[in-house]
Amino acid sequence: MSRKFFVGGNWKMNGDKKSLGELIQTLNSGKVDSNVEVVCGAPSIYLDFARSKLDAKFGVAAQNCYKVSKGAFTGEISPAMIKDCGVNWVILGHSERRHVFGESDELIGQKTAHALESGLGVIACIGEKLDEREGGITEKVVFAQTKVIADNVKDWSKVVLAYEPVWAIGTGKTASPQQAQEVHEKLRAWLKTNVSDAVANSVRIIYGGSVTGGTCKELASQKDVDGFLVGGASLKPEFIDIINAKA
Predict the structure, then answer these.
(1) How many structural domains is the chain composed of?
(2) Which of 28, 53, 167, 180 is the most exposed place for a label (fewest CB within 10 A)?
(3) What burial class does residue 92 get, using C-beta atoms within 10 Å of its C-beta: 0-12 exposed, 13-18 middle, 19+ buried?
């Protein structure tokens, strides 16, 4: 079964209307492979702006949301609000949410369940830290994170799994294509054993961690790498080269 290549751009806490407007113009006028699903993760305050300016062929994602639809949760946004802005995706469980803001596996699972129930697509992030990789427990860590997500998913067609080794995010270090493929292959095998053959074959497992125009082609050629979640490079014109990594 062929899985549609998926490239997400995570803008993180970057940009303003001027610079993001220019980036959006570059994307709208760029030549992008029509066989690729592209989603841009905008800061929540710019979701409306991004959705109104970006061409309809690009999706937009929020970078986080809360686990209920409304209430006394100062500073949070809900899937209902995200959808009201015409936005159909949310990134959940990013390592910065886990390690900078202390979000637990349990909370990320609850958010995933609520976002999916609300009709959003979820880019669910998992990945090990450097000491965990050096300690030889990469599999244990990513399987545990994946299990909490899997326990909260009923419809896998709305989920993209993003493997992001924490030691490679924003550090300039990239997992080698072989390292990425190895973990992706093990994740697919885990899904086969713990969810189903059909889900293991159809769910897209994308790689994140210092993906650039220079590293994307070899990574994209790996059998189980179905796309990318791109950080810093998604704010630059080279994002188009990354989108076209398979072209």
Answers:
(1) 1
(2) 28
(3) buried
Query: Does the pTM of the predicted model rise above 0.90?
Result: yes
Phi, psi at residue 85, to the nearest 5°? Answer: -90, 5
Residue 190 tokens read as 């885990």
Cβ within 8 Å of residue 213, ≥6 positions away = 233, 238, 241, 242
What is the span of the domain harbouring residue 22?
A: 5-244
Q: Residue 149: give its domain's CATH number.
A: 3.20.20.70
Q: What is the pLDDT of residues 22-58, one digit of tens each?
A: 999 999 999 999 999 999 999 999 999 999 999 999 9
Supply 126's token pair.
């998992």
* DSSP codes of every residue in 102-134: ---HHHHHHHHHHHHHTT-EEEEEE---HHHHH
Cα 72 from Cα 66, distance rounded (Å): 11
Q: Taking all residues of the chain, what is their mean pLDDT, rounded to a whole number?
A: 97
Catalytic residues, which ones?
A: 94, 164
